[in-house]
Amino acid sequence: MANTIIEGDTIMNIRNEIKAYIVREGFTMSELVEKLAEQYGWSSSVPNLSDKLRRESLRYKEAVELADALGYWAWWSRHIMVNRYERAPKPVYDNMRKLVEGKDYFVLTTNVDHQFQLAGFDKKRLFYTQGDYGLWQCSEPCHQRTYDNEEIVRRMWAEQRDMKIPSELAPRCPVCGKPMIMNLRCDDTFVQDDGWYAAAQRYEDFLRRHSGLRVVFLELGVGGNTPVIIKYPFWKYTVETPNALYACVNFQEAFAPKEIAARSVCVESDIGEFLKNHF
Q1: What is the DSSP string of 55-98?
Q2: Alpha-carbon distances of 113 from 89, 213, 230, rounded to whole Å
Q3: Would you give the distance in Å from CA 84 to the centre of its chain?
Q4: What average pLDDT does this structure show over 138-160?
């Protein structure tokens, strides 16, 4: 089993809560402000937003325009620092790297924290399909390019006071002047830049080179949020490749369709505990 494709779609940390509500659960902006007021006492910071807050379907990029009042980038800079530029506190990613050492592998992931790269995985063998906490893009977007945010995020982290960043650090598009946003796939404004397409091509090339060979499609922690990116394709590839094996480690949803049951290994387990105990 020399060829392994692995994926790490770990459970979202509670610090993702506000973003998750905006993007996935459809909270209105007024509901969001109420939650922020409860948690951070920010209600006194938003005296001039009543007209916009009456609207029941404020778009994500409009929320970005409220950044100064809501401490948007103060919160995001903390979130990015902890989840993108600091190493994960547990050795799960290090153990995954040990698992594929000496093997021909490729990582397909919907995670956006780049913990694979921080753990020493070859960046040419990674495809982050859903974006990157370390990149910004134009909120419009007026062009298909992303921008590294580490230097400014570190300044936001260090210089913010009372959950607000210095106004000069609020990022704006260098082309059109509109606010910048995170390069995360939350609607049709997501920018797929040259780096994204290059990674997608490397993944396709990997699949093509290993077509018909003894490949292990190893799925780690993929849930029902975006199964069309990893889970369903892995099933399809296993059906189409008689020599392939499908392996799934998931805390509660480890299963495979009957068409590939004889060539599948499904384990209901915590990924960290599984890797620690078996490799």
Answers
A1: -S---HHHHHTTHHHHTHHHHHHHHHIIIIIS--SSTHHHHHHH
A2: 13, 31, 17
A3: 10
A4: 96
Q: Are 135 and 145 in contact (CB under 8 A)?
A: no
Residue pointed to by tokens 């089993």: 1
Give the SS3 label for residue 44: helix
The DSSP code for 224 is S
Q: What is the pTM of this model?
A: 0.75
Distance CA 270, CA 190 (A): 32
Instruction: Record the tokens describing residue 250, joined without a space.
Output: 């998931």
pLDDT of residue 237: 95
**CA-angle at 69, arms to 66 and 72, nearest 5°:** 65
Pairing of strands 131-138, 180-184: antiparallel
In whole angstroms, what is the distance from residue 139 CA to residue 72 CA?
14
pLDDT mean over 184-207: 96
